[in-house]
Design brief:
636 residues, mainly beta, five-stranded mixed sheet, 45 strands, globular
Length: 636
């Protein structure tokens, strides 16, 4: 039987099994076609304005990097997006291992480390105070409540005061809380305000003493009040609505408790409140049409924008992103909206191809960015690939840019984007900034020419493929040439199957990334792996090589994967049979200028596969340099 006949028969036998194997054929996330990176044709297809040599375009660079490590004698508990919070005025709060580190976002230096009395439940920072809510301290006096609120000086780390009591939320400027049951604390740069449904209290942030009290309940409302609260840079904001009555928004002066400004919003239906440090937005229905009303922190009404979009749902509401000049920017799901307050009309709207993470955020009033969220261990397509970001300039033009490190986004402080990356025994924190670069290849590939991406089906030469003993044939995955919106000359995914069509004989090889240099590839391969997941086993197989294997009893949607670095290349091998996956990863040869890494060839030892792979220590993160901060110039 000749090769062509065997291949045709194989395709017929494996067709039904490919549906089961579909989890290994996940589609790459495409970038935005509006990216301005030039344009040349490859294999008769156009790569939607990918860059040409000499094109200057923005790209993310690491400003500083640091690793959070526990104090001596403390076990490390990894943090995640909920354990790292951008405070206000250049502070980053990182909670782990029973401590709270306060970083300076401009330099990466730890300002202070504080020790909450018990497990940390919530935190915030504004002005000179860091406030944390924790569980009750075992050494405390009789417990009037199960929660303790503790305030620290943001600069010295010294203890300021403690209060017992349960709060629903600690709100930094730009945060909101709905349907207060106990109380919410609005932190402003002028002091904290305690808010309840019917009463508000001012507080001296240095001593914790209450300085004023006022009743919130509207005299014309005799039934339950629906209360929504927010914190801005200068005010605590309350919106109250009586059933069948008007809704009123009121901004309180934190120092006196007096009304700084208020507005009657009329009878609103399905209202939602959102805020930034300087804006308060209400999304609601106006005669059946979804509308967003926006005020700035001084109480000036900036916009009453009616959204004409069939995808819009009032159940979720709109998020206000920021404003620049006469434009106010909103987001809903995957869509960005710009509304011109001078013309009282939309400026533009566009789809944001990245979703799953928090944001989007306004980047220092010059662009809007959105970043993909934490990788899903069931999604093989996310392993070993940089985190994707979309940068939208203020005219609506978009560009897809990878981050130089894999990580989960925390937020934006000025022009700095903070990400966290899970490592065994620590968490790596990275501060990224956009800078202009001259690229010799697409900016969406960090300047790597498309010709440097290899053909996934050619990574296993014939003799090495035959050494697996199953008579495997390569099956290119159609559509896998698209990476971050760039069309490549070869497929980046290749499935391998035998004539029998047995699911256990299937595996897939994916070229996940081609980095600028081997160190960058190793950082990408090691980024945000699920070290503390209860669903998978994580093991280090060698330098830059990692095994992710589902634990017994876990859903079959999780497959065994090995992430391998070969020089500048990050390769992922996936399949149902762990032994086959590890063996295949081990026989991958060097690629182009790649360096050889430790691997396991079939036939060495008494048996092959995971059982004879020793777990090694994880290489520690590199010490991040702390350059002098400066304000770079870049063009969106």
């Amino acid at each position: 039987m000749d090769r062509r006949t065997r291949e045709l028969l194989t395709r017929r036998h494996v067709f039904s099994c490919l549906m089961v194997f579909a989890v290994l054929a996940l589609t790459c996330t495409a970038g935005n076609p509006l990216a301005e990176n030039g344009g040349e044709e490859i294999d008769g297809g156009s790569s939607a304005r990918t860059s040409v040599p000499g094109i200057r375009a923005p790209g993310w660079e690491v400003l500083w990097a640091a690793s959070s490590t526990p104090e001596a004698g403390l076990d490390f508990n990894a943090i995640n997006g909920a354990g790292a919070l951008l405070g206000f005025d250049g502070a980053l709060l990182v909670a782990h291992s029973g401590v709270l580190d306060v970083y300076n976002t401009a330099t990466g230096q730890i300002r202070r480390r504080v020790h909450p009395p018990a497990e940390l439940l919530d935190m915030g920072q504004a002005g000179a105070v860091v406030m944390v809510q924790s569980g009750d301290s075992p050494s405390s006096l009789p417990r009037y409540s199960s929660r303790v609120l503790t305030a620290y000086d943001a600069y010295s780390g010294g203890l300021l005061w403690q209060q017992r009591g349960v709060t629903d939320a600690i709100m930094q400027p730009g945060e909101t809380a709905h349907h207060i049951h106990e109380s919410a604390v609005a932190m402003t740069t002028r002091g904290p305000v305690w808010l309840t449904t019917y009463t508000s209290y001012g507080m001296d942030w240095r001593t914790g003493r209450f300085t004023w009290t006022r009743e919130n309940r509207r005299p014309d409302c005799h039934e339950d009040i629906h209360t929504y609260t927010a914190a801005t840079r200068s005010h605590a904001v309350i919106m109250q609505a009586c059933p069948e009555g008007d809704a009123v928004v009121e901004a309180l002066d934190p120092e006196t408790g007096r009304t700084a400004w208020w507005h009657n919003l009329g009878q609103l239906r399905e209202v939602r409140i959102r805020a930034t440090a300087d804006l308060i937005a209400f999304s609601h229905a106006d005669q059946g049409a979804p509308t967003v009303t926006v005020f700035d922190d001084s109480g000036e009404r900036l916009a009453d924008a009616t959204i004409i979009d069939p995808e819009f749902s009032l159940d979720t509401g709109m998020d206000v992103v920021g404003h620049s000049g006469e434009d106010v920017y909103f987001s809903y799901g995957w869509t960005l909206y710009a509304f011109n307050t001078g013309r009282d009309a939309p400026s533009w709207q566009g789809s944001v191809p990245v979703a799953g993470g928090p944001g989007p955020w306004m980047l220092d009033d010059r662009a809007i960015i959105s970043v993909s969220g934490t990788p899903n261990i069931r999604n093989v397509g996310e392993l070993g690939r940089p985190t994707e970001s979309t940068v939208t300039d203020l005219t609506g033009r978009q560009q897809t840019l990878p981050l130089p490190v894999r990580g989960s986004p925390v937020g934006v402080s000025g022009d700095i984007l903070i990400t966290v990356t899970e490592e065994p025994g620590s968490t790596r924190i990275s501060a990224l900034r956009l800078r202009n670069h001259t690229y010799s290849g697409p900016a969406a590939l960090r300047g790597i020419p498309r010709s440097k991406w290899p053909d996934a089906c050619a990574l296993l030469p014939g003799d090495r493929l035959e050494s697996l003993g199953g008579g495997h044939l390569p099956l290119p995955v159609r559509g896998s040439r698209e990476v971050f919106g760039v069309t490549l000359p070869h497929e980046t995914h290749c499935r391998f199957a035998t004539e029998s069509g047995e699911e256990s004989t299937f595996f897939e090889i994916r070229v996940q990334w081609v980095a600028e240099h081997p160190d960058a590839a190793r950082h990408i391969a090691a980024g945000d792996l699920p070290w503390n997941s209860p669903s998978v086993e994580m093991r280090v197989l060698g330098p830059g090589t990692y095994l992710i294997r589902p634990l017994e009893g876990e859903p079959e949607t999780i497959v065994t994967s090995v992430i391998v670095t070969r020089g500048r290349h990050v390769i992922v091998v996936s399949g149902r049979d762990p032994d086959l996956v590890v063996e295949t990863a081990g026989i991958l040869p060097p690629i182009a200028d790649a360096v050889q890494v430790s691997h396991h060839r079939p036939g060495s030892g008494t048996h092959h596969g995971v059982g004879r792979v020793m777990t090694t220590s994880h290489p520690g993160p590199e010490k991040g340099r702390t350059p002098e901060p400066h304000r770079p110039e870049w063009e969106g």
